[in-house]
Design a protein that fits this description.
Elements: H1 3-16, H2 21-33, H3 37-54, H4 57-70
Length: about 70
């Protein structure tokens, strides 16, 4: 339950490896789970952009489903 530390780790990973799409989904899900929906939305939208750039339809579907679940 060290959410801020986890967020720092995800942010560092995003900076070092921005094309690692799973980071966006995992962080978005974590943020949703602790009721930080606006931040979760930002991460998921950024992940959707990355998935589209990489033509990764599987990841894109998971990210879009997670984003839809926020609403």
């Amino acid at each position: 339950e060290r959410w801020d530390e986890a967020l720092q780790t995800f942010t560092s990973l995003r900076t070092m490896k921005p094309d690692y799409v799973a980071t966006y989904l995992m962080c978005g899900q974590m943020l949703e789970g602790i009721a930080r929906k606006d931040e979760a939305r930002e991460w998921l939208v950024a992940g959707i952009e990355q998935a589209r750039e990489q033509h990764d339809r599987d990841a894109l579907g998971e990210l879009e489903a997670a984003l839809d679940a926020l609403d």
